[in-house]
Amino acid sequence: MYLNYAKIKSGQRKQPMLRLRTLAGKELGPIPYVHDLNFAINYAELSTISFTIPYQVNGMLNPLYAAVSSFKVVYTEEFGIYVLTSPSKEGNGVSEIKTVTGYSLEYLFQKKNLFLEEGTYNFWNPVNSADTILGRILELDRTWHVGYVAPRLIGCYRTFDQYDSDALGFCYEDAMEKYRCVIVFDVYDKSINVYDANENPETLPIYLNYNNLVDAVSVEEIPEEMVTKLHLYGSDGLSVRDVNPTGTDYLVDLSYFLYNGDLDIKVGNSNTTLADRVRGWQLEIAENQQYYTGLAASRASLTAQKLMAESDLVELNGEMESLVAQQSVTIQAFSLETTARGQQTQQANLDRINSQIAAKQNEIDTQQAKINSLQVEIDSYMNDIKRLTGRLEFSSYFTQEEQKILNQYFIESTVEEETFVATDVDTSAAGAISKVSGTVSINASNIARVELSQFAKTMYTLAGGTVTVGNAGVSAEIVRGTLDVKGDSSYVLTAYLGNTNYNNRKFSSGLLTIAGRLSRFSSDISVRTEQGITEYKGTRLSFSTSNADSYFTVNVSEFQQYSVAMELYDFGTDVLSDYAWPVYEFSVDSANFLYHEKFEPFKNRLELGKAVYLELGSEGLVKPKIIGFELNFEKINEFKLVFSNRYRLRNGAESWTEDIRNSTRSSRSFDASKYIYNRTADKATEIDIFMNDLQKGAVDAVLSAKNQTVVFNGSGIHVGGDSKYQMRIIDNMIAMTDDGWKTAKLAIGRFASPETGVQWGVNAELIAGKLIIGNNLVLQNPLIDENGNVTGTMMFQVDSTGAWLYNSRIVLQSNNGLIIVDPDYGIVAGTKLLFNTNGTTVTPEFLDKAGSITYDSEGMPANANFYLDVNTGNAYFRGKLIAKSGTIGGFTIADSYLCSGSGNTRVAINGGTSYYSEYALWAGASNPSIAPFWVKKNGDFHAKNGDFSGTLSAAKLSGSLTALAGAEIIGPAIYVPNKSNPKFKVDSAGNVSMTGNLTLSNGAIKWSNLNYSLQNTINGAYDAAADAAEDAAAAARDASDAEKLARKIANGEFNNGTFINGTEIYSPTIYADEFIVKPKNAAGYSKWTGGYSMYGYFGNYLYKMLSISYIDTGFGPEVEFWSPDGAYAYWAFPRTTFSGYLNFQNAHIEGLSLEATFG
Where are the strands (E) in 800-840, listed by range? Predict the structure, then answer.
């Protein structure tokens, strides 16, 4: 996982905020109360987070406690994005906590299934990503995209058996191993970045030693992992022998011993050191590498041309056969003619056909001569190849004394890389032949030019890139190819292709050969000199051609074998360059500089996957990669920085190959399960290849045999002499042994057994080939448990009574389905993984350790779509069950419905539209409309009678509900007309309330089971009711009087007592602790004055004697005391006190006996 460490603040040691989100990105909020937070950040593998949260803190619930669950996302600003899995809870009745683990976001690819058909795959093509490895992975989750991809991996091909498992496992295991790459996921950018494992990582300007952050160092040499002589094989016995300039299946690299001076010695009478002799050998191999590649490529190209010529010859021979057939028919017709004219006509036809046969024979002879010429040219290349390999072969280049010394420095190992596959060469001629014209363009390829002067031609070798052919409808990815150009401008282009578009048809691979004359040739090839070796290389070339011969086939050819072998040779060269130097393993204790301000520059430049400078004491300076760190926020000082703890002496640095070099290699031995369960349509099966290998091995053993002793005597024929491998032939037996006749490994002849009596047959551990069985066949194997104990015998028998399989199961598999037939539990079928294989042992996935079936949530065996239980007879289907006739559970199956009985016993279930389409089910009549019970599809329901013993739920009830004699309505409460605002209610406690009238007549209310107290209460209630009746009568009288009084007031006839109307109040006395007068209108109505007024009579006139009012004078609110009609005021208080400001301006004061001062 890629991180930007500059985001980490050195001075802030507090733990980061964890933000909870859904997979779709919906923000749920920060997770509170997090503790025990730990991160393990890894570069090219899953990173992890773990933490704990409490259910509640100080009585307050954690608001996100329940939301923290599997497949939620935790987002951090600086330490990555994680998918949570399987939180666990722990409590003691007082408190509860949840412990959570999460994996970096690419973990979701572990939940995606990647399926790759058997075939050859390009790792990445940015122009056409379909059917590339990264393209297939991105198809599983379109929210991700491809970031950086190392140039070597663009157009890099590898071959795979069928893969059907999780995508993340493929990325972190198969892809990194097979393509020698490092895959890194950037979870913030959601990009997949891929780096070349053959390249040394970039070294950061970070220097670690004892003076700053290094506390302790230990270093250990690992000699077991050093190799100087590497035998190199692909799948199916593919080797580098045919593309190796030394002509061997191994590569040699003695660079380390040259470096340390061990070979600085002179051998025999030589004036040159052995080290210089080795250097000269290696230099000569390097100088001749391109030339040898050109020879091998030319031979492979000529073989492809020969294949194309043989294809033409097959077509010519087919035409010849047709002419010969016509000739035979004509001769027969001639012999049957009875007239001279008829014979003359047939003779003319025969002459014409004979002439055509002669012309066709000339074409065939010419084509055969062309094929023979190509074979001669192929042989000449082979001779030159032999001369070169004979000179450069180790045993030829070095003297016997030198070889004895050098052999001691050969540390041998074998690499078997099964992704380099070139199956048996198909020499049959089958393909598409056409004529092409236009421009041939090759781009983005590794092109090398080699001058083959002795053959008067120039060879261009091609690796990777693309080829397009003008208007011929050809565009393809190049795996390997050659362009052979002669001085007369004739050329042959041969290319082994990856994804190919040929005449609007797509192929995953193929072989293209084009031959003709070229013009307007151009390229960007230029001279390049490296380590004293001059080569001519480029990336593109193009030329024009007209009416050229084109041949395309998807059959495996020798040129494909050459191409794959070259890929394997380059692969082995890269591997050996690492293996040839010692490996050192070290450990470092370092201080935590992630949160140390002093080392802020170190932290900001930190990047996983990059190297740093590390001083290892006397070992000097090395450059290990940083591949991870671990951080515990509860103990911040326990920061752990994880280095790749290996380096090679070659350059003091470790390339990424150290991370993938120990990946498990598949064994070359025969794996029966592989051949039984992984066959692929339209290709040679692995068992066929295995049988062919056996046949070839037998031929090779016979041809290479020597010192074979043959003895004829009275005891038969003896072959083998003193060897432990022997064969004997007598009159009724041929037998072979591998242990000097202690046992026999193969016997053919006359056998006798108690079970079968005397029989003739074959007894062997392995029988391969086309096998015809006679009258009886018995196969048996011991059944062995996990402890190695024999528990029984499996036997398969075919005889006149039939075929029998005892104590075993039948397993069937194709690309799309799996079936298991087992007498222990029945028949199980599905399309997902139903079983695992280990060798030839098949273990069903749906069985637990005890051998019992485990069922999923739908009651089916895990991953099964169909299950027939042999013990119960039950059948389980995950899909649809379709039947248009028959019976099931007593019902007759019709086209669209089920029925049983007739007339008043009729019961029907209807799912169609052609038979009483309105009704879903009915009973009691053939016609549902008159049946006593029916249910329509719209939900309508009819039942003549019903007895409900359970719960009856209904939102509404229309019509009358009549209870028959003896019936009861029992329930917790009654509400009329509704529950929210009832006018009549009986609640569950027996309380009754109502707002309407209660009418009782011709009856009585009886009380029973009442105690004395309750009887007194009821009697009191009777008395109270009587009093209430009297009070009600009095109230009625008062109401009548009030009505009369109201009429008087309304008519203006009332003049006594208190009276209030809309404008007047009549009352002799008003009592109030505070009498308040407020404006009638609210603020904002321009009401500037108001107040209280008192009127009085003077004489016969009514005057406004006193006004206490308020007024807005513009200077502030003002209260006025005055008499609008000029009444006098008399002030007779014993004491009057004023405060504030008194203004007597324009006032006249009389009768003051004391001097007063105002103002």
Answer: 802-806, 810-813, 818-822, 826-830, 835-838
The β-bridge relationship of strands 229-233 and 412-416 is: parallel
Query: Is the peptide bond preceding residue 582 cis, with omega within 30 degrees of 0?
Result: no
Of all residues in the chain, the percent with pLDDT exceeding 70 is 75
CA distance 538 to 256: 32
pLDDT of residue 769 exceeding 80, the answer is no
- The reported pLDDT for the residue numbered 533 is 75
Question: What are the pLDDT digits (tens) for 336-371?
Answer: 677 788 878 888 888 898 899 889 999 999 989 988
Burial class of residue 227 (count of CB atoms within 10 Å of its CB; 0-12, 13-18, 19+) = buried
Residue 1006 banded pLDDT, cuts 50, 70, 90: low
Dump the DSSP string for 548-574.
EEEEEE-S--HHHHHHHHHHHHHHHHH
Closest to 665 in 3D by CA, of 1136, 178, 279: 178
Count of residues for the chain? 1159
Structure tokens at 447: 């092109």
- Kindly report the backbone phi and psi dihedral angles of residue 947, in degrees, each rounded to the nearest multiple of 5, phi listed first: -130, 110
Torsion of the alpha carbons at 337, 339, 345 and 348, rounded to the nearest 10: 80
What's the pLDDT tens digit per position in 7-38? Answer: 555 445 578 899 999 999 999 999 999 999 99
Token pair recorded at residue 1101: 């006139």
Residue ranges covered by each domain of the chain: 112-199, 203-226+581-660, 242-406, 431-554, 669-705, 809-881, 887-943, 1056-1159
Query: What's the token pair of residue 962?
Result: 């009549």
Mean pLDDT taken over the chain: 77
| Angle of CA points 680, 683, 687, to nearest 5° | 75
Spatial strand order of the sheet with 621-622 comes to: 203-208, 611-615, 621-622
Task: Report which of 634, 624, 811 is spatially closest to residue 217, judged by C-alpha positions.
Answer: 624
What is the H or E stretch that residue 1017 is in?
helix 1012-1051
Contacts made by residues 936-939, CB under 8 angstroms, sequence distance 24+? none
Residues 6+ apart with CB under 8 A from 893: 883, 884, 885, 886, 887
Tokens of 741: 């006749």
- Give, as one character, the DSSP assignment of residue 312: H
pLDDT for residue 587:
55
Q: How many whole angstroms separate alpha carbon 548 and alpha carbon 434?
A: 8
Instruction: Tell me if 19 sits within 8 A of 74, measured CB to CB.
Output: yes
Q: Which amino acid, 69?
A: S
Contact of 807 with 824, CB cutoff 8 Å? no
Secondary structure of 217-255 in the HEC alphabet? EEEEEEHHHCCCEEEEECHHHCECCCCCCCCCCEEECCH
Q: Do the beta carbons of residue 119 and residue 172 sit within 8 Å?
A: no
pLDDT in tens, 1095-1121: 888 877 888 888 888 777 666 778 888
The DSSP annotation for 431-447 comes to SEEEEEEEEEEEES-EE
Contacts 24+ apart (CB under 8 A), 673-682: 673/837, 673/838, 673/839, 673/840, 673/841, 673/842, 674/161, 676/840, 677/811, 677/813, 677/837, 678/118, 678/161, 678/162, 680/117, 680/118, 680/162, 680/815, 681/815
Residue 325 is inside which H or E element, if any?
helix 274-336
User: Can you give 659-681 as a three-state secondary structure string?
Assistant: HHCCCCCCCCCCCHHHHHHCCCC
pTM of the model: 0.42
Under DSSP, is residue 303 helix (H, G, I), strand (E, B) or coil? helix
Return d(Cα 436, Cα 432) in angstroms, integer.
12
- 49-105 pLDDT, tens digit per residue, is 999 999 998 888 999 999 999 999 999 988 899 999 989 999 887 889 999 999 999
Q: Which letter does DSSP use for residue 938 in this model?
A: T
583 is written with which tokens? 């490996």
Tokens of 430: 């089958």
